[in-house]
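Bug #2210: token dump truncated for MARVEL domain-containing protein?
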Amino acid sequence: MDLNFSVFQEPRGVMRILHLIFSISAFAAISGFSGDVNFKCENTTSPDYTFVYDYPFSILLDKHDLNPSGNATVCHPTVTIIGDFSSDAKFFVATGVLSMLYALGIIFVYVKLDQLYKSNNHLPLVDFILTVIFAVLWLSSSAAWANGLSGLKHATSPEAIQWSGIVESCKQCLTYTSSFSTLNISVVLGFLNFFLWASDLWFVYKETAWFQGNQGVNTAGV
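Reproduced locally. Full output below:
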């Protein structure tokens, strides 16, 4: 079996490894995330309530009674949290998964089919065009997810949570929201992926007939 591992000594091979690693890291950070909002109300007979949400972040908590076991004479606060950020999240994850699959596929081509890649003018052109597409996808999906994450933070913030059933007999109800650090990292990884895919364009372009044709014309002119 003729395998060409020397490609990993070239920038285009090294970049594909980075694409693979950071694509997985980006979509794993968001798809594996689980957050929660904890509600603690005094003067109720029920324990604290924790609302858990995760990917794809289509959130719906409709008038949940925080004191369902209490009788009619005690406080019955209800909360509502509404927010659908699934389209932005799915776009981001889909970009990550497709990038991972393409990185794996093109690494196989580089290693196993390197001679065909260099002798066939169409393969480098397809590689270059797809790299452009993935760079654009990372930029747009990262921007979309950054906007979606901002909306998610707002929807789960104490200021945006809708309360009802609060009467004088109710003491203060406190809200605690989990950290968004992992999701913040996912946004950073998204824009980092854009930078990596965009940076690879020059190295892939050098393998195309467009670049080699220009080099031939310049050499002939000299």
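Output looks complete on our side. Strands lie at 34-41, 49-54, 58-65, 78-84, 162-164, 173-177. Marking as cannot-reproduce; reopen if the truncation happens again.
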